[in-house]
From TrEMBL:
Enzymatic class: transferase
Native organism: Candidatus Nucleicultrix amoebiphila FS5
Entry keywords, A to Z: ATP-binding, Kinase, Nucleotide-binding, Signal, Transferase
Keyword set includes Isomerase: no
GO biological process: thiamine diphosphate biosynthetic process; thiamine metabolic process
Thiamin pyrophosphokinase thiamin-binding domain segment(s): 170-219
Gene3D superfamilies named among the record's database cross-references: Thiamin pyrophosphokinase, catalytic domain
One Gene Ontology molecular-function label: kinase activity
Domain Thiamin pyrophosphokinase catalytic residues, every copy: 42-147
Signal peptide: 1-22
NCBIfam families, per database record: thi_PPkinase
Record bears the keyword Kinase: yes
Listed name of the protein: Thiamine diphosphokinase
Amino acid sequence: MNLTKILCFLGTLLFLSHPMLAQKFLIVAHGPFDVDLVREYQKDRITIALDGAANEFYDWGLTPDLISGDMDSILEKVKLYFEKQAVQFFETHDQNYTDLEKSLKYCLNNYATDIVILCALGGGRSDHTFHNAALLKRYHDQNVSITLVNFNESIRFLRDETITLSGPIGSALGLFGFPKAIATTQGLQWEMNDYPLELAIQESVANRFKTSLVTITVKGEALLVAPRTPVLKE
């Protein structure tokens, strides 16, 4: 093992053994793999690959900090390779939770303040897609940002809060009661003023940024689909 690998290994151990330092996480699920997104978000986050996604990391020459799951999807050659690279393994066999949910719990138990989830939308498994969106609500915490991200949009759960988003004028935005909320906005093409949102009853679909800054206030619970742009204020 050369000096660079030794230093990387020691850095990973420092993060994992001192959880107060481990505040920003990236979880890569076993959905359609977007290598460019993974590389972008991996730069400044502790990276957890679900066991199926570990095969993609191997194929693209990427290395996660930790591999999580029941290890039923990881190829044996991949497992052996990452063991030699001193990657940490978090093996769990509780079938009451999906591998993604178990990884979320791991992050929250290790003082996460910001969690981005990639490769968790689509892939021909609508049940997983709906479940993954539901996890945003199940593990919502005002002190922890949890966001599902794909190549052009993000999904996050809001509860009794105000956020300001930055994005290109004309970008699409959707807001859905999850199950119910009252929404007020500033900066959208079709503004909402104490607008009632209710799942399967009324929502805001195909709204758009009228200005580069959009402020959304939600009273109740809602699911926000927005451009993959920064949240400036919460």
